[in-house]
Amino acid sequence: MPVLKRPGAARRGQVVLSQDEAWQLMTQTGPLAAAAGFDVRVPALSRKKPTAALRLDTISSDPSVVGAHQLAQVRWSAVFDDVELSAADIARLASEARPLVRSHGKWVELDRVDLAAAAAALAERASTTQLTGAEVLRYAIGLEESPLAGGFSVSGTGWAADLLNKAQVISKEPITSPDGFEGELRSYQGEAVAWLGFLDSVELGGCLALDMGLGKTPTMLAHIARTAGKGPALVVAPPAVVGNWAAEASRFTPGLKVVVHHGASRASAKELSKKVKGADIVITTYGTAVRDVETLAELSWDRLILDEAQAIKNSANETSQQLRRIPARVRVALTGTPIENGLGDLWSILDFTNPGLVGPRPAFIAQLSAGKDHSRQGAETALRALNGILVFRRTKSEPIVAAELPERIDQLDHCTMTPEQIGLYQAVLDGLVANSSDELGAEPRKGAILAAITALKQICNHPSAYQHDDRPLIGRSGKLTRLEEIVDAVYASGERVLVFTHFASWGMRLAEHLTAHTGIETACYHGGLARGARDKLVEEFQNGEGPGALVLSLKAGGTGLNLTAASHVVLYDRWWNPAVEDQARDRAWRIGQTRTVVSHRLVCPGTVDERVEEVVAGKRHIANLVLPKSSSLADLDTSQLRTALGLQQESLLTENPAELAQDVIESEQQSNSLGKPLEGAAG
């Protein structure tokens, strides 16, 4: 070995090797000497090429200055696996004959091409010594393109570190039910409230993407209650769920002042300005928000919340463009399906919640899908990279979530009556009062009342269910609109749904409408079908793949069937006997079901629907007035009839026909521009 013959080597007992000599010893001379019988001990050598990445360290020591728009000091370096190198380190290594570094206890030779690329990248960023929290976030979630194969490694101190590590932090610090919230949060909801609280503190927007049935609305209400006093929150939702928001707020946060801004009798600009000053939550619809955008844009909003945010997944449509004009300190989007067709949907939502943060749409899609699957599944994979920072995503299939869920989630969906429904309802009620005089015998009077109850229930379902006309169904019923939203959400998740109705003829119309609405064949299971045909429908539904729906008449399909392929059940109209509804839900919620079943009960507030709900819920003092089997029906006087069956005006959320038509047109435009109907999962 020539190096051992250097002058003084024998006397000192050691020789300092150059990089090249050390490399030769480890790769050539050493193995030969060992083969000749010598005891050769050389450092371990790694033949694996290390991955080069850029590292960004942030320093934000002032806890009083926190936010996505605040500046933090930054320092750049290159990282080769676990070896961090400054620009000076790279220059020194580049001058060596063989650039060796020690990594994981082994010596590694660095690639000179990678060293040159790292040196160029650091030189390019040498003048960038400060970045905002939002800019740092872009590097952390992979939205900035890196010149090195390993991308970016980001770390920090102070609030910047919290911003970067929030995905890990929130899982350890879930929020229990806050003051002012009457209910118990599940752990994932507590994590979501903690996540919302952090985003609020740094003035970042976000997308709360809990699966359908996991409770987006109460989660958001818990956050609003926790941060009450900061200013009013403007909630924009589809017409079908405005009533649900008001009802949920009354249930979970009764101490918060809620204003509903919707319908022909809504407040003027001057009146709304006064109402907003004392309000915690203002609820409106997408259509109303667009029509009143000038008024809403002039008011001061602490946060802007979009429920069923798929409504803006086409960033070019008028709804999305007009809503961007409404200023708010923080914007939050709620959706059960943040990705229906691809990453473009997610970009539209995130660009709304944090304008400019995620960059241009093409670059966002290209960066998150680079080298990955471009399908919806690939988009979901990319979504997970954002989870916990700009998006809070939980699904029923996650073991941690599933462990907390009951086997069945029962959900009450309030559905807004349309003007056409209200007019028909009042006309039937007036006719009943006029034609059921006290002079009639008990049985005729009872028959008239029962017939009127049936008519009122049909009107709550849809005007066409009562009038049996052939006019188009869309836009004429709050229940139908809500059903469309539920089915869209179920289909977007690749699941299956059962829809029960008491009226077989209406069930057939529903099946036809859902087929046209979704483009997927929907059948109706009813007593008029031969047994063989019914059996075939069940078999096809159970064995079908992908999304699907089956409409069933409550009488024919409410018992005896095994329909565990469905994970959602919709009770389109209500029946007085809760056991009948339970039997219908049990078609999906039974032995063999491997998923949590979500049951939706559709109710029109302020109508006979709500009286049925009260009966089913166990408020038996109402039963004596309205139960069909009750012998007291014939004894009701005019006043009692109006109380039992009449419209409760304070519970109705109405709009005039022109506005209703505009809402329908906008909804259709959004659906057509995307090639798929709007999803509408309510939490």
Automatic annotation (TrEMBL):
This protein's UniProt keywords: Hydrolase
Protein's UniProt keywords contain Hydrolase: yes
The Helicase ATP-binding domain, residue ranges: 197-356
SMART domains per the UniProt record, alphabetical: DEXDc, HELICc
Source organism per UniProt: freshwater metagenome
Molecular function GO labels: ATP binding; hydrolase activity
Domain Helicase C-terminal: 482-653
InterPro entries reported in the protein's UniProt record: DUF3670, Helicase_ATP-bd, Helicase_C-like, P-loop_NTPase, SNF2-like_sf, SNF2/RAD54-like_C, SNF2_N
Pfam families: DUF3670, Helicase_C, SNF2-rel_dom
Annotated segments matching region Disordered: 664-683
Name recorded for this polypeptide: Unannotated protein
Presence of keyword Hydrolase: yes
Database matches in SUPFAM superfamilies: P-loop containing nucleoside triphosphate hydrolases
